[in-house]
Design brief:
The structure holds 2 protein chains of 2 kinds. Chain A is built from 9 helices and 21 strands. By secondary structure, chain A is an alpha+beta fold. By secondary structure, chain B is an alpha+beta fold. Classes of the chains: A alpha+beta, B alpha+beta.
Chain lengths: 424, 260
């Protein structure tokens, strides 16, 4: 009988943490994880998940003449249905045998190498999904503002406020033209400068298919794996929190239903004021009634938290002035708020925007929970060399199939086009 | 039994004090929709004594009860019944609880507010430009008129870290005011640095958690066979130089084992 191969043994080690993956995945420290998959109804098949919406009241009210008068006709409540179809996401991790051997002074070191990759991989997968959650449903992560034709790209935040914030080193991405009609192919990011808002892309072989000279200013950068014209991707925060009167939302036409447009306040490039926060929240009150506003959360980047702190109406630093009040610190610890609304910070959030979200109206339609990609109980796969023989490396994947939904876009609001403080 | 029109006092424990001082213990017929309270004068005067007054002779900080704090909201309103039934749309300016988005229970809290000078709200023109909403042929100042005597903005809701009610105490108020003033004095660069450090700490915590989760699931010592010596002597390093050393303040070391 053939000896047990290393590939087989590493697979066993990874299985030990298999049931812990969801725990790592569902941590509430990013927006993506805060949007929970709730209940059994969201377990979906390949058919659409249907979200019934009560849009408009029905019935014809009026005064009546009971002395033979005409009572008129009636009407009913207007319902419609929003539909969600899950899409799949994957995160591949590949380790060469040399990496393994480099830490192979004992069997424990091998376990640590696997551990490191699982931890890093899961953190990166969650981060990638969280970045994707910031987008508007078409998967656009960045806008190219300058291209030198050999792979050096500038993506200024004057065009897309997130600049290159939603990209990461060694990520494989797709390039589209400005209308999302033409997929130019894929490339791999080999350098990224978050301050200068630049990336360097290579192509060829496993690194991608795009012809670098074809990438031009106004092109769009999407995740690897999207296909065809006008791809549908993860329905992120800007898809659901959208005040536009055009386009569709979960297959419903925004033009026909003002009820599915999110209230907004456009700051016009001005710095955040307390008035803007009140205006944005009041718009929800006015749309839904005084009792209709749920438990809100203010979701923003560090920049807008900084701006709010500049207003001087928040407690930002609690040191201990004397022994007697020391215990009081504990009462307020870790509870940052914006005008009383709990803050949720993300370095991936649009730095020019603050979203007020009622998370009870958000959810994930899940077809496949996070797990290792598996075929016949095998989760670790060999890599093949160009000769057809095995390469000295192995692969494993995290996969999940889901989509983000919202059953009431008017239960939130947002402030857009805010000024960013200097130094960011 | 309280009678209609009689003034009764509702305590936080929902017991009812009748005007004659007795306590009504029967099942209350009234449902408490909102509680209103005024800040005890001694708390407010203590704040004023310590910090002085603003240029309009108002307090620099003040404590308000959530339901008592009203503010202008203007524009087009969609009205619903308590059951969520659509009633009508109406236009107008209304005084509503300013922090109503905290929910009914959330308004049953004491809140600390700080005074904002008029100029901190920007110019009158900027205010009007920013807050004017046009609905059909009507114009509204969505946040009411320009605050030409300044206004008060929320600093902190008095609740604990789990969101539970905290009774109003002078010590808590003093502490919050102190903390707010310290925060205001922070320089911008320091503020940025602190925010970034907080983010790094959060990230480090996340990584540590991932590591712990993995260790929790992985076999002990990476699955390597292991044995240890119970009650091993600590604080000394033993080295066996020769067989003569056995029993002379030196312990033998075992292959593959170091004792430190």
């Amino acid at each position: 009988m053939a000896a047990m191969t290393n590939t087989q043994s590493v697979a066993l080690q990874l299985e030990k943490v298999r049931n812990k993956l969801p725990l790592l995945y569902e941590r509430d420290d990013v927006l993506f994880a805060a949007i929970k998959a709730r209940g059994e109804v969201e377990r979906v098949s390949t058919r659409n998940m249907r979200i019934p919406l009560k849009l408009r009241p029905g019935g014809k009210y009026g005064q009546a003449d009971m002395d033979g008068g005409d009572l008129g006709r009636g009407s009913g409540t207007t319902y419609d249905v929003a539909t969600v179809t899950p899409i799949f996401f994957r995160f591949g991790i590949e380790i060469t045998k040399l990496v393994e051997y480099a830490t192979n002074s004992s069997e424990k070191a091998v376990a640590n190498a696997a551990k490191k990759e699982v931890i890093e991989g899961m953190a990166q997968f969650r981060a990638a999904l969280d970045k994707h959650t910031q987008t508007s449903g078409n998967g656009v992560l960045a806008n190219v503002t300058t291209s030198d034709g050999v792979g050096n790209l500038v993506c200024l935040n004057t065009v897309n406020p997130q600049g290159v914030q939603l990209l990461y080193f060694n990520q494989k991405v797709s390039f589209y033209d400005a209308t999302l009609a033409t997929n130019r192919g894929t490339g791999t990011i080999t350098a990224i400068d978050y301050t200068a808002q630049t990336i360097t892309v290579i192509t060829g072989g496993n690194d991608g298919t795009v012809v670098l000279a074809n990438i031009v200013a106004t092109d769009l950068i999407l995740p690897d794996g999207v296909t065809g014209a006008n791809p549908t991707s993860l329905f992120g925060i800007k898809y659901h929190q959208n005040s536009a009167a055009t386009g569709t939302w979960l297959n419903m036409n925004r033009a026909n239903f003002p009820e599915i447009r999110t209230p907004t306040f456009n700051a016009g490039g001005a710095a955040l004021t307390t008035g803007m926060v009140r205006l944005a929240i009041n718009k929800i009150k006015k749309a839904l009634g005084l009792n209709g506003v749920g438990k809100l959360m203010a979701y923003c980047n560090l920049e807008q938290e900084h701006q709010y702190e500049q207003l001087g109406v928040t407690i930002t630093s609690i040191a201990t002035p004397s022994g007697t009040v020391r215990d009081l610190e504990l009462l307020f610890e870790g509870k940052k708020t914006m005008a009383g609304v709990p803050l949720m910070l993300s370095i991936n959030a649009d730095p020019t925007r603050i979203d007020f979200l009622d998370m009870t109206h958000w959810g994930r339609a899940v077809m496949q929970d996070i797990d290792y990609f598996e075929i016949g109980n095998q989760t670790i796969f060999p890599v093949y060399g160009s000769s057809g023989g095995l390469a000295a490396a192995y692969l494993f994947y995290f996969v999940t199939g889901m989509q983000i939904w919202n059953d009431s876009p008017r239960n939130g609001s947002f402030i857009s086009n805010l000024e960013k403080p200097a130094g960011y | 039994m309280p009678i209609m029109g009689e003034i009764i006092t509702l305590n936080r424990d929902r017991s009812i004090y009748l005007p004659d001082g007795s306590v009504y213990t029967g099942r209350p017929r009234a449902q408490v929709l909102k509680e209103v309270h005024e800040c005890p004068p001694e708390v407010q005067s203590q704040i004023n004594r310590k910090l002085g007054l603003n240029r309009f002779d108002g307090p620099l900080y003040r404590v308000v009860w959530g339901w008592n704090r009203l503010d202008w909201v203007a524009g087009k309103f969609t009205r619903y019944s308590d059951d969520g039934v659509y009633l009508r749309e109406e236009y107008g300016s209304f005084l509503e609880p300013k922090y109503s988005y905290m929910g009914r229970e959330g308004l049953n809290r004491w809140m600390l507010e700080r005074w904002y000078a008029p100029e901190e709200y920007g110019s009158r023109e900027a205010w009007e430009f920013e807050t004017t909403e046009i609905e059909g042929d009507r114009e509204f100042q969505a946040l009411g008129p320009y605050p030409d005597r300044g206004g008060y903005e929320l600093v902190q809701v008095m609740q604990d870290s789990t969101g539970d009610f905290i009774q109003l105490e002078q010590e808590i108020v003093d502490y919050l005011i102190w903390a707010c003033e310290v925060s205001r004095e922070q320089r911008e660069s320091k503020r940025k640095q602190r925010l970034e450090e907080e983010q790094e700490r959060e990230e480090a915590k996340r990584r540590a958690l991932y590591s712990d989760v993995f260790d929790d699931a992985a076999p002990a010592f990476g699955g390597v066979p292991n044995s240890t010596q119970a009650n091993a002597p600590k604080g000394q390093v033993y080295k066996l130089d020769s067989l003569k050393d056995i029993g002379k303040n030196k312990a033998p070391s075992m292959p593959g084992m170091s004792v430190a």
